[in-house]
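Justification of computing resources. Each target in the renewal requires a structure prediction run like the one illustrated here; the chain below, 255 residues long, is used simply to show the kind of job we budget for.
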Amino acid sequence: MTGGPEIDLHVHSWGAGPPVVLVHGGILGGRETWRGQRPLTERWTLLAPDRPGHGETPAARQDFEPEARLVADQLLDRPVHLVGFSYGGLVSLYAAALRPEHIRSLTVVEPPLFAVARGNPEVDATSKVTRDIIEDTSASPEAGLARFFPVAGVPITLSDPIPQVLLDGMRQLQGARPPDEAEPPLDALRAASFPILVVSGGDRPVYEAICDALAERTDAERAVCPGMGHLVPDTGAPFNELLEDFFNRADGNAK
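Resulting structure tokens:
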């Protein structure tokens, strides 16, 4: 695993109960990404780190491998339920493999794990376009968002002016390590003792193919939570119910 800068992750903490670590994606930080999960704070402690360059965490190049080490070292020091969304799903797959003894369950939501479905023409085409967008550091963040949202399946029309938090997030995504380079240790995750859930939004065939292949490779449960395209956490109650049911079953089976 590659090295990276020593960074203290800023972690938002809400609620009381067993800990749930929530790792956000490429644009919005921890506070904004998981706003729809606040009802879970009645029964769970939600720990939402700002990945490097987001929120209150110092900037660094987005890279799923060193970020996985940061998450593992700073947040997986005790048993937790780990949830990763989009690029944060890549981070979470690597992090879970680093600290399997402290993972009560792992949930990944539409990770751009293009390698797991390589050879699928639509997946390969989306992988290339995603890399092109990320590597085009000369583009304005406004232009980058206008290209990125349709490719990622984000069902939002950009307003004028575009909110600063989105512009800042796109600037951080530009120049990131492209997700097509991610090849987490899926065999090790399959052999681990914790259960895995792979969730998609049911909107993009690319993500359905990736999530199907990932679930097969890791012997994971597979679920679809429609209504907000790629932004599955923004469905709110349906996603929360899916998570909580999975957490409770994982905890029950571990006893």
